[in-house]
Structures are given as structure tokens and as C-alpha cells.
Amino acid sequence: MSLARHVSSLSTPKDSQSRITDRTSAFVLPFARQSLNEGTNHTQVDPDHLIETLRDHPSKAHRHHVQGAISTVTPYSSRYASEQEISKFKIPKEGAPADAVHQMLKDELDLDGRPNLNLASFVGTYMEREAEALMVENLSKNMSDADEYPAMMAMHARCVSIISHLWGVQNGETAIGSATTGSSEAIHLGGLAMKRRWQEKRDKEGKDKTKPNIIMGSNAQVALEKFARYFEVEARILDVSEKSLYRLDPELVKKNIDENTIGVFVIMGSTYTGHYEPVEEISKILDEYEEKTGNDIPIHVDAASGGFIAPFTYAHAGGPKW
Fold first, then answer.
1. Which residue, among 211, 322, 313, has the nearest Cα to 266 in the 3D structure?
2. Which residues, at least 6 apart from 170, have a Cβ–Cβ distance to it below 8 Å?
3. Smaller CB count within 10 Å for the chain: N or C?
């Protein structure tokens, strides 16, 4: 409204334009489309026309531009008054100032939610500056190249040891672990290990191995179902109920396992309610099944939200043993 009022005041009949210089009039008048109705001056600003007028205005002739280059003083001058557009979908022929590109991308990302308010996520939403600095300083290191980065590999082994002690590793036991890019990769690697183990056993027994299945509750996060789809395993998704506290129901587990079950997914922090599932109770059911049939069905515990929280609580997560 302030721009419209300003333009209207300048776009007066010719007999009252003595206060407006020719240059000002040339600059202002093209911005507005003017109509007169019954003595009332209505001014409508056309944004597209305004932008084009700014781009082609004679005042820009006093600026010095290198052919094809993007000149900038501030990020926003490059964004809104540059001589050419900065491409979003392909690499442009000419470069752009780093501060301008940073500001534009930052503005787009400002539309995202704030991670520290995202209660639906299991990711770390807060970290000390020193930890963030270490991450940035080591972003260029390739963890797959153990020979080139031995110090990082040694820290990796120490992290596996720390986590194993949090979860009660016993003397004489050896913890095996690997860093992953996230919980989805960890689930997929764990599920694939269970499938390979089952396949090797079936090979030794000379039995069919084309119909593997895996057990999970309907409260499972989507990465568990993705494993079944990606690695061609039947997902036996069991209903949860108020009786089971909306967790994987041990009674339904007992009814749905068979010789083709490669494993059971159990979650330490259900996606929907945060409940810890009864790991030890399900383990006992699987032990009883093995005694009767000789089929050893392993458990994959998805640490989810509880993996680094439960060890510090008195929740007896998963059962008294844990």
C-alpha cells in the first residue's frame, strides 16, 4: 500500500507535476497502471512490469558489468537485481558469489521445521559445538578406507566397545559392530545377516530357501518393511492392541513363527508410542520353539529412541536381564 500511495502521489495531473523532475517521473510512472473513475485516482501496481522496468531502467547504465558475470554487493543484490538468473536445475555457465548462493539456499531451508521441535524423530536434535566442529573437520574422510584413516578406525572400534558395555556385554564375549549412515542401513544389514544365516542353514539341510519370512508388529517403523521389500522376505506384520500395550504381541509371535522365519524385529521405542517391546519375553518363546523344533530364530533389536537412553534408566528395558 505504501508503494501504491507513493506512486499515486507522483502520478498527478500534468498541471501539478512541477515538483517532480523529469528523471523522477521517468522512473516512477512506468511502475503503475492508472485509471480515473468519477474523479478518484486508482493506482494498480503490476509486480512483473515493475521488475522488468527496473532491469531495463537507464539508471543501470551507470553500473559497470563484466559480460555474462553476476555482480553483487550483498547476497540479495545478486538475487533480486542481477543481470542474469541463477539456475536451480543445472550448472550455470557463469559462477555466482558464494555469499549469494549461501543466502539463497539458507532461505529455502528456512522453510523446513526445526529439528529440536521434531518429537517424531529419533535423530540427535542437539549437539555441543565441539562435537559439531569435529564432524565438520572430518567430513572429507572416507570411513571405507581403513588403511588411510587408522585413527578414525580405532575410534570406531572404541565406540563399538562403549555401546556393548552399556548393554551388559559379559567377560569372554566379543562385541561385533559397524557404523552405518543411519538406522535404516543398520536394520537392513541386521536383517540381511539373519537371512544369510537362515539360507546357509537351509543349504546344509538340503531344504527349500525361497520363502523366508520375518516377524514385526504393525507399529514398526517403515525401514523394517523396506528391508522385507528390498531383500525379498515375506513381512509378517502382526496386529498390536491395547492388551499388548500397542507393542509386538508375544502370543501372536508364538502363532506365526515357523521353519522359514529368519528372525523377529523388536523395537526399543515404538515409533508411535515410544513403548519398549518385551525383548526377553519374546526371546523365551523363541528358546522354547528351538527346544521343540531345533530351529534357532534370532532377534534383531531396533535400538530406535531407546538405544542410548534405556541403559541410563530404571525401566528394565526389554526385561530384567537388560
1. 322
2. none
3. N
Tell me which residue of 253, 313, 318 sits closest to 288, measured CA to CA.
253
Pull the grid cell for residue 229: 521389500
| Structural contact between residues 257 and 194, judged by C-beta atoms closer than 8 angstroms | no
What does the pLDDT look like over 56-77, one tens digit per residue?
Answer: 655 554 444 444 444 445 555 5
CB-based contact 277:267 (threshold 8 Å): yes
| Long-range CB contacts for residues 26-31, cutoff 8 Å, separation at least 24 | 26/58, 27/57, 27/59, 31/3, 31/7
Residue 158, classed as helix, strand or coil, is helix
pLDDT one-digit tens code per residue, 196-242: 999 999 999 999 999 999 999 999 888 999 999 999 999 999 999 99
**Rounded CA gap, 266 and 302, in Å?**
6
Residue 225 or residue 99, greater confidence: 225
CB of 195 closer than 8 Å to CB of 230: no
For residue 268, report the phi and psi dihedrals to the nearest 5 degrees. Answer: -95, 70
Contact indicator for 214, 235 with CB cutoff of 8 Å: yes
Helix locations, 11-149, DSSP H: 22-28, 47-56, 75-81, 98-109, 129-137
This prediction has a pTM of 0.68
Q: Which CATH architecture has domain 183-312?
A: 3-Layer(aba) Sandwich (3.40)
C-alpha 57: how far from chain center: 44
Residue 135, C-alpha cell as written in the block: 564432524
Question: Using CA atoms, how far apart are residues 268 and 249, in angstroms rounded to an integer?
Answer: 14
What is each CA distance from 292 to 48, 109, 194, 266, in whole angstroms? Answer: 78, 57, 21, 22
246, 236 contact by CB (below 8 A): no
32: enclosing H helix or E strand: strand 32-37
Query: What does the pLDDT look like over 272-303, one tens digit per residue?
Result: 888 889 999 999 999 999 999 999 999 999 98
